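Entry 14. Ran structure prediction on the chain below.
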Amino acid sequence: MKPNLKKKKLNFSLYWMYAIIILVLVGVYYLDQNSITKPVTYSEFEKYVTEGGVEKIVVYTNKNEAEAFITDSLAKKIFTPSQYTQGTHQDIKISTSIPSADKLQDKIEQWQQEGVFNGSVSFEKGSDYSAMFWSFAPILLLIVFWFVIMKRMSGKDGGGGGVFNVGKSKAQIFDKDGPIQVTFKDVAGLSEAKTEVEEIVEFLKNPQRYTDLGGKIPKGALLVGPPGTGKTLLAKAVAGEANVPFFSMSGSDFVEMFVGVGASRVRDLFRQAKEKAPCIVFIDEIDAVGRARGRNPNMGANDERENTLNQLLTEMDGFGSNSGVIILAATNRADILDKALLRAGRFDRQIYVDLPDLNDRVAIFNVHLRKIKTDDSLDVELLARQTPGFSGADIANVCNEAALIAARHNKSCVQKQDFNDAVDRIIGGLEKRSKITTDEEKRSIAVHEAGHATISWHLRYASPLIKVTIVPRGKALGAAWYLPEERQITPTEALLDEMCSTLGGRAAEELFLGHISTGAANDLERVTKLAYAMVAYYGMSDKLPNLCYYDSTGQEYGFSKPYSEERAKNIDAEVSRIINEQYERAKDILRKHADGHKKLADVLIAREVIFTEDVENIFGKRQWTSRTDEIFAGKQLTEGKKDENPYEDKDGTFIEDKDGKDDDKPSVEIPPIPKQ
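Output, structure tokens:
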């Protein structure tokens, strides 16, 4: 038995009509090109006939026009070579306007009697279809153009919207068979954040497990954290793990130049979400639309962003019910979000996605190293220790840069040195060995960097030194790399030691060169901010203790300041005192170790780079050892081992560890200084 084959119906498309019109116009154009016609005056027409250059005459009685087919000899005279080529199959004609058909007939009879014209004569009714088409062609083109514009404006051509569709949501819908195949296994670290998000996915997969006990599915979760920590990646993992529809869009997609469009898109988004419930709606960079109301003065005009936010608040927790719709949002500026948006019932959970710690960085490196060919010399844990403060995006960039560096040197695999060069490249910038520096400048840079290295080696809370170089990198003429221990709080002594170490470059210039230079501009900027933070934010001043003028809500103080003019003078005086004390302390340390500093500067001038062992050969072992020092001494860490005493003196007494970052970045996050 033959299968019943159904004939496919051809769907009519408006584009077919466009194609037919274009083909007709092109056909008429090319048909008209099969003959060459030149308009002439009636007197010239008579002249050509009497000279014997005409073979046939066609008279159009209804148009008072006549055409004459001419000979090749006459065609050569009246046409240019570009218009006419002998031997072609084109009809060569001339045309003219005549008084009337009767008068031309009398004239033709006269020519025949005189013997100047012996060709054929025909009388016809003319119909110029080509002229008609070409006269209507502009109108047809305008009609076609109008249809195309109207169709695009209505958004029916698959373009994704238009003027009539501007209020529709731009959210992309993903499912388990979609292009996103990221799972929680691809998200390294972030164990606490993954636990929270995994529970949300479990709510949607098995809601009865929670509702039987009287619990309610959370309505929303806000992912908060610095840029590059994996907030969007976590949302992609949710899309890959959940077996429910996943709507994804950016906060800026709600903002449009037309009034009311943002609110309309919010309504359309939640309408689609309710139709596909249970589902997840992810709004990336929600601060674009969720900024606190009243923070943007607009001279009394209608604020489109506030209208959009009001609609979003209503949809998330208004009188209507969004059962089965969970909102995920991500931002790195939670301090500027509206308080009504952050309350329970809208975003029940705030999941903080922080910068990865050491163990998380090891896991992140292992994820990104899956696709990179490495050799046995690579120590992933040591590499993670060399990148404190790096986000997941920074670590991905390190791995990619290392692979590019290895490929640039035609290596078969990526080695340890390639990763070290990649870290140096990202932290300090590209080496600029072509930059011209005089011998005097080179010595000044070496003395400056040796001052940093000397003081940090003899300070209790200083970070262990990795490398110092006087090769220009990025905007810096020299740089130093340190390997800090990671901790959550920092004592006053650690901040003072860091300040003293930072001032070591300027102090070395003054002591050993007899003059100072502009090379310490970045050091002075960091020291000033750190000293101001100690006095105005951390309450670490003896004269102004236990005071903090930092506003953690992000509102800041606008044009006013939270203290008097007298208090401002006291703050400035305390900042100057702290900096001057640490500067004198740095000079005292350098005077005590002047010989070692000179040897260190000479090695820098000769080799342009020094490492930990070079400083140790000059000054001896540091008085304070740390876990990091053991690594460089050759003692490898065991997996999962925890360090109870990060810093331990030689006699076994406990010494608090030090928080900090590399020499190019402040060790302590300094809040912005209020306007004065």
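The first helix runs from residue 14 to 32. Will compare against last week's run tomorrow.
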